[in-house]
């Protein structure tokens, strides 16, 4: 019996309520709208289901692959021969205790920042327009407009790959630019506690509106993408370097360097993973040749 067929059988016995999907198109689970099928996907709606999924996989020697809302992910056209575990809305616990918020991994950042505003708490305005979930945002230390998750997250509940439950805090979280203790994919985020500061809800909303207007004005929100494609090089801005090299609007198949914001590679229609990777190579080679700066991918890849 195929190992994934055996895993499916064991999961159905160990956790009958766990939603499983075989050969699930990953294009449905990324904001790029790109990616072939995952051999097996689990969509746990609770910590207990997630734990059962990981423990069962560990028992068969299957290493899980963790994904969130897929807002920073590029998946191979051939898909993923593996076991994908995705945090969904069921992992959506959301509560406020004084100046602290606790959010499950499946909670969208727009929902989280809205709750903070409703409780007159400031510190998450930057997250309002980021199209990700808490689990993914913690994993990559998502940020914008001089704010980042590492500045507010104090504790993270997670599962080790074998299903062991842990809570990490302080220096254990290892936050740095677009990085955390979860970036290596060995831990599944269940939820995070954030410490915020009391503020004026009107001022908080005004700042959220300002950030929203900036995004709409500057970013290609009308086309599928994974946000900023490249990390910010020290002392530079990736978009400015790409623009300087006159690469705006450059295409490879269905992939395009956004005409609106050079830091975004977008799916202009029918783009494949191969199209995006070819365009990434062209951009990096051109920028290095013309400016001497080496660009590093911020977008994570899977199955490549």
Give a concise summary:
This protein has 304 residues and is an alpha+beta fold.
Instruction: From the alpha carbons, calculate the radius of gyration and give it in angstroms.
Output: 20 Å
Shape: globular
Distance between the termini: 26 Å
Structural class: alpha+beta
Question: Which range best describes the helical content: under 10%, 10-25%, 25-40%, 40-55%, 55-70% or over 70%?
Answer: 25-40%
Query: Unreliable runs, pLDDT <50, ≥5 residues?
Result: none
Strand-and-helix sequence, N→C? HEEHEEEEEHEHEEEEEEHEHEEEHE
- Output mean pLDDT: 94
Arrangement of strands in the largest sheet: 6-7-13-11-12
How many strand segments?
19
Strand percentage lies at 25-35%
Largest sheet: 5 strands, antiparallel
Query: What's the helix count?
Result: 7
Describe this structure in words.
The chain has 304 residues and is α+β, with helices and mostly antiparallel strands. It has seven helices and 19 strands. The strands form six sheets. It has a five-stranded antiparallel beta sheet with strand order 6-7-13-11-12. A four-stranded mixed beta sheet has the order 1-2-5-3, covered by helices on one side. A four-stranded antiparallel beta sheet has the order 15-18-17-16. A hairpin with a 2-residue loop joins strand 9 and strand 10. It is globular and about 55 Å long.
């Amino acid at each position: 019996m195929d190992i994934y067929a055996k895993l499916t059988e064991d999961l159905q016995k160990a956790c009958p309520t766990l939603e499983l999907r075989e050969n699930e198109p990953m294009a449905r689970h990324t904001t790029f709208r790109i990616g072939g099928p995952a051999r097996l996907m689990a969509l746990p709606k609770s910590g207990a289901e997630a734990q059962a999924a990981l423990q069962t996989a560990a028992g068969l020697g299957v290493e899980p692959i963790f994904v969130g809302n897929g807002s920073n992910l590029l998946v191979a056209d051939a898909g993923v021969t593996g076991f994908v575990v995705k945090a969904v809305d069921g992992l959506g616990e959301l509560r406020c205790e004084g100046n602290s918020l606790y959010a499950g991994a499946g909670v969208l950042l727009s929902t989280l920042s809205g709750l903070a505003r409703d409780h007159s708490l400031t510190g998450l305005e930057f997250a309002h327009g980021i199209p990700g979930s808490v689990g993914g945002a913690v994993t990559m230390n998502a940020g914008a407009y001089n704010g980042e998750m590492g500045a507010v997250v104090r504790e993270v509940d997670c599962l080790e790959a074998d299903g062991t439950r842990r809570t990490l805090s302080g220096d254990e979280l290892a936050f740095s630019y677009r990085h955390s203790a979860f970036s290596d994919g060995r831990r599944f985020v269940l939820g995070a506690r954030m410490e915020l500061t009391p503020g004026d809800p009107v001022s908080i909303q005004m700042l959220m509106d300002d950030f929203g207007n900036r995004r709409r004005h500057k970013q290609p929100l009308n086309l599928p993408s994974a946000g900023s494609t490249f990390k910010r090089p020290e002392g530079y801005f990736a978009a400015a370097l790409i623009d300087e090299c006159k690469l705006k609007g450059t295409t490879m198949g269905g992939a395009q360097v956004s005409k609106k914001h050079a830091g975004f590679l977008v799916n202009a229609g029918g783009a494949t993973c191969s199209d995006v990777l070819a365009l990434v190579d062209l951009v990096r080679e051109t920028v290095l040749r013309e400016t001497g700066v080496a660009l590093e991918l911020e977008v994570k890849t899977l199955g490549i």
